[in-house]
Amino acid sequence: MTTRESASPPVGSAWDEYWRLTREAAAHKGGGPQEEILARFWTSFFGDLRTQKAAPRVLDVACGNGAVTGFALTAAGSSGALADVVGIDTSLAAVRDLRARFPSALAAVCDAVKTPFADRSFDVVASQFGLEYAGVAAFDEASRLVARGGTLAAILHLRAGAIYRECGANLQAILGVQSSGVLSAARDLFRVRGPSAPGRTLAEVQRSQTKLEKALRDVEKVLRRRGEHVAGGVVRRLHVDLTRMSARAAAYNLVEVIRWIDNTARELEAYAGRMSSMLAAALDDRGLEKTVEVIERQGLSVRIRDTLEMGAVRPEPGAWVLVCDRA
Hints:
The protein is an alpha/beta fold. The protein is built from 11 helices and 7 strands. Mean pLDDT is 87; it is low at 1-12 and 22-31. The radius of gyration is 23 Å and the shape is elongated. Helix 1 packs across helix 10 (254-281), helix 6 runs antiparallel to helix 8 (202-226) and helix 7 (182-193) runs antiparallel to helix 8 (202-226). The protein has helices spanning 13-21, 33-50, 67-78, 92-101, 136-144, 162-180, 182-193, 202-226, 234-247, 254-281, 285-297; strands at 57-61, 84-89, 106-109, 122-128, 146-157, 300-310, 316-326. The longest helix is centred in the last third of the chain and has 28 residues, at 254-281. It has 2 domains: 13-161 and 282-326, Vaccinia Virus protein VP39 (Rossmann fold, 3-Layer(aba) Sandwich), CATH 3.40.50; 163-278, no CATH class. Helices cover 52% and strands 17% of the residues. The protein has a 7-stranded mixed sheet with strand order 3-2-1-4-5-7-6, with helices on both faces.
């Protein structure tokens, strides 16, 4: 595959932190209704493609740890073909995860707006909740890479859709936890009650205990308002862990527990950052129209422009689907 010269893109540090610390939300640890719907789409898409091309060249843009890459390789493997699959992402941690999961795929840190690939290098350029983060220019670049007879396929965040609202609730829950000061209060309590903190007065211990109890009540309010499963259960697990640990604060190694609290604070920050990014990247009707205009200027025609219905009880639009072809 030919390439053109480009400077090394900056690593997406915020997403790096997300992929490194918040594994519970990673693409390969799904399994819920949303993941099943996405899996059905990609399985059907790559299954149809397999009947047209024996070994398509596939680019997974904003690949994360390889949700789309996995479907492409599975489809190719079932046909006995050796697929040429490349994943790119701004996060080095995500790229490393993809390489570990799918050794036969190539993966590199790369800016979706300025890739090092030559025009029309791929039969398929695919993205799941990725291209929209880089803005309209990323769709222009992705379209440039689609070969003659090739396809651009993307699942995109839908503003005001089911996933959008879920992300909003998750963000508000995490912000509520952060504003409660529960981690700061826990840090103070462990410092005054730990075995390496002799000489603390009973009044100091009681003040720290009261401060943490209030913060935990504030976290309980978040759970009552948003539900126990909000943010993938992160808030509930934190509440359960801190309640249990604070009851036996003197039994914990101070250095280890402070490290755990600091890591948890970074995880919450990374999670909130990801939710904020999702909300900002989501496209409304006008945003999708602008995206389609850019794609069509690159010579592609829209074959599918629709929404994915999500929700086990009452399905509703959750994401945009775009499938565009180059003649």
